[in-house]
Amino acid sequence: MLKPNTKAPDFTGINQDGKEISLSDFKGKKIILYFYPKDNTSGCTAEACSLNEKTEYFLYHGYTIIGVSADSVESHKRFQEKYSLSFNLISDPEHKIIKQYEVWGEKKNYGKTYMGLLRTTYVIDEKGVITHVFPKVDTKTHAEQIIRALEV
What we know:
Order of helices and strands: EEEHHEHEHEEEEH
Shape: globular
Structural class: alpha+beta
Radius of gyration: 14 Å
Largest sheet: 7 strands, mixed
Helix content: 25-40%
CATH architecture: 3-Layer(aba) Sandwich
Number of strands: 9
CATH topology: Glutaredoxin
CATH superfamily: Glutaredoxin
Low-confidence stretches: none
């Protein structure tokens, strides 16, 4: 996992509308870059909706939200439309961005160990430096979790 005070790796991916999005497109802006395992699952839906409910707050404070998972562009489009999500969702089926941000790793569920995406959020400042890392995400209140950390 990447640490605070390190340069955020630049990336390029395709969003839910089939448009190419790069971190460098947001130079001079603050980013909330969140990685989540799967569209339309209960935890991922709760997390996305939590962030979406606070989009205006984040925009007011200069933050752009970007979600990343290995799901397809089409899956992201359906997910975005179903929950009226107001931010970009990047498709990363080859795990290029996921690996750049070191969020691919060993997971355990019901006693079974497997490799998967580790739900993580990075806050990146205007200079492209990671300021906050959230490796333990409370999916239902993730937006508030971020807001509390940013206010300190």
